[in-house]
UniProtKB/TrEMBL annotation:
Entry keyword set: Amino-acid transport, Receptor, Signal, Transport
Key word Signal present: yes
The name this protein goes by in its record: Extracellular ligand-binding receptor
Residue ranges constituting the Leucine-binding protein domain according to the UniProt record: 25-358
CDD domains recorded: PBP1_ABC_RPA1789-like
Keyword rRNA-binding: no
Biological process (GO), any one: amino acid transport
PANTHER family linked to this entry: BLR7848 PROTEIN, LEUCINE-SPECIFIC-BINDING PROTEIN
Amino acid sequence: MKLKLAIIAASLALTSMHSGAAERIKIGAVLSTTGAASFLGDPEYKTLKMYVDSINAEGGLLGRQLELVSYDDGSDANQANTLTRRLLFDDKVDVVIGGTSTGATMSMDPLIERAQVPFVSLGGAVVIIEPVKKWMFKTSHTDRMAAERIFDDMKKHGISKIGLLSETSGLGQSGKKESELAAPRYGIQIVSNETYNPKDTDMSPQLTKMKNNPDVQAVLVFGMGQGPAVATRNRKQLGLKVPLYQTHGVCSDEYIRLSGDAAEGVRLPCAAILVGAKLPDNDPQKPVVTGYAKAYAAKWHSEVSAFGGGAYDALMIYKAAVERAGTTDKAKVRDAMEHTKGVIGTAGIFNMTPENHLGLGLESLRMLEIRNGDWTLVH
């Protein structure tokens, strides 16, 4: 009888060990793979899928395979909230990556904070990380950083009075606020201040006001998705000759495709990923961004974007934190993420602290200009 019990116990122990070894690390994601923000969300999803498969092929993380559990919010912040509940309470994921937009991110965060799960946002606004939220981190440059980079460039070119056209979305409205706060520090005055709805298909009325204002020396569009491309085309149609600046919300070849030749001469701050091959050989980001670009193009037969790069950064920051913590325990991984140091990503070199859940410097935003339908690095 004792022998029989011992055999049963050993069998149960082996079963338990086998079950534990087979348990997958669940990577949860809520992304905008359809809808107005799809040209951001689609490369984010493809990037996560590609690198989850790649990590698994190399033996996984801590000897365990990863499982990507991803949902499409259709570019709807309310839907993002609903899907986050599913990730947290049904799927019981170990980490959440997303949302694609600031609006989606902010709708997701209260649920995630209560559930105490590490969360890496791909949204752009500074409100995502200010004030600091315990479980929320971020990989995209902030709207404040974008505004400061743009205003610094404007100042160098003698521009002191501008028109601001901002989207009535999370990023657009946060970007409007940050632009209004930052402009005076650079000696810049916003003399025309207009907004547009993300679904607007014509922004001629707002741009006509700017064209008829003799003080407007340049136009800054703060938005994401298709809206900025509409504004770019409308500007050319109206014959508005002053320089046009966009933000990191359109750092994708899709923006150039949607804008056509109207994008010629547009200046904007973006992550280095769009000009990886043009970086100096001694730039520490060059191997990372060129390696990512090569892998993405080979897998998906399309060009890279800063948005897909943000998803890569999010996954690699989580992976590095798990490796340092030696566990997937959520609290320990969160603590490790908060002390991320020297992780080279597509957006820059991440150095996080308890007071800074982004950890990127302003120098990580590269100033680009679109010339002959391509990205050019300017200084």
